[in-house]
Amino acid sequence: MRKIIVTGGNRLTGEISISGAKNAVLPILAATVIGANESTIFNVPELRDVEVMERILLSLGCNVKKMDKMIWVDSKPLNNHKIPEDLVREMRSSIILMGAMLSRCGEVIISYPGGCEIGPRPIDMHLKALRELGAEIEESHGFIYCKANELKGCEIQLDYPSVGATENIMLAAVKAKGTTVIRNAAREPEIIDLQSYLNKAGAKINGAGTSVIIIDGVDKLNNVTHNTMPDRIVAGTYMIASAITEGEVVVKNIIIDHLQAVIAKLREAGCLIYNDNNSLKIIGPKQINSIEMIQTLPYPGFPTDMQAQMMALLSIANGTSIISETVFENRFKHAEELTRMGANIKIFGKVAVIKGVKELTGAKTAAKDLRGGACLILAGLAARGVTEVENMYHIERGYENFHVELRELGADIKKID
Ligand code: UD1
Fold this sequence. Notes:
14 helices; 4-stranded mixed β-sheet
């Protein structure tokens, strides 16, 4: 089993260039099946989740070629509409293939994704919306059977701005007859990236980034080339790596606007942050200030995907901080591991109370999920002594060469196979 060993205490300095966004490229790769066309996607991060999506596309019959940071997908030969069960189990977000495959073949069979490390994650909104678009869906023995002779545009009011449901609807509606309107749509930047990819291929979508998205159905999609947006969560994680080590790190190749909620909280914590075009310099303070309240929210609120990393930082603040996790249930598993390192954290349902301690001490820990794993590595960077983080595979789902990049910034860190 692969694990990370980090010896804390080194100050991080230097520059890091941020890779393409996992959460943007996954729905885009799902979208490649819609058009029986060729897609060339640049700035694709090398991550386990992306590999799983490639394997799904191959299993559906697509031609897929990968070179460095580029993926080329030819979806003309697609000849299968069953998504392999083991791959769905490995990557829950393969559920966004439902909309894309319905659009392409009018049929898809996918196993029920079930729960995951950060809560039950139901898909009721996905299914309801696809039914509204005209799909017939049966759930039986752990599988979802979807069929649609014709998808028809309609007005869909989401109960909650779910990222995945918004994407699934966009993918299903691209070639539907007539106009689809999504109200209370998720406003995450990754949805703008999906709109941009689809429109370059000939789709007619407006409004991504706002809570009303309008999709006028088109007959076909053309060959397309797209450059994936930078990963705001990876960027935010390196910003905290600088903050927690009294470091001075420049995070390059980002879209600063996507990071405003994180920037605001890091400034409250005492960081100095300077911006310059597409980069930010983060100077960590000698003493982290506690933060009265952080509430995770849909974009543009504070991202749930940055909650764990922020908890690592606040565990050594000079007072008590409160984090309220409103997006996912059961997303505080890292708190227990931080406690092993000497943190003082109490969980009350969806609220965490973090009483800052003078210092963390190295300990044997295990990543329970992707961002929780990143949180433990960040804590290890600041802790006295050696921290081990087991279950590296969680971290590899979302961070490319994390330990190598951190080492280049000055961390004492290695991976053991
Ligand atoms: C996406 C991101 C994930 C991020 C999350 C919130 C990808 C691949 N993943 O996940 O990294 O943490 O957005 O920013 O882009 N819900 C329902 N019913 C549904 C759908 C969702 O109850 O049908 C609930 C979920 O359980 C959760 C909340 O809505 O509590 C938000 O989920 P959603 O926005 O759908 O997140 P994902 O798309 O799964």
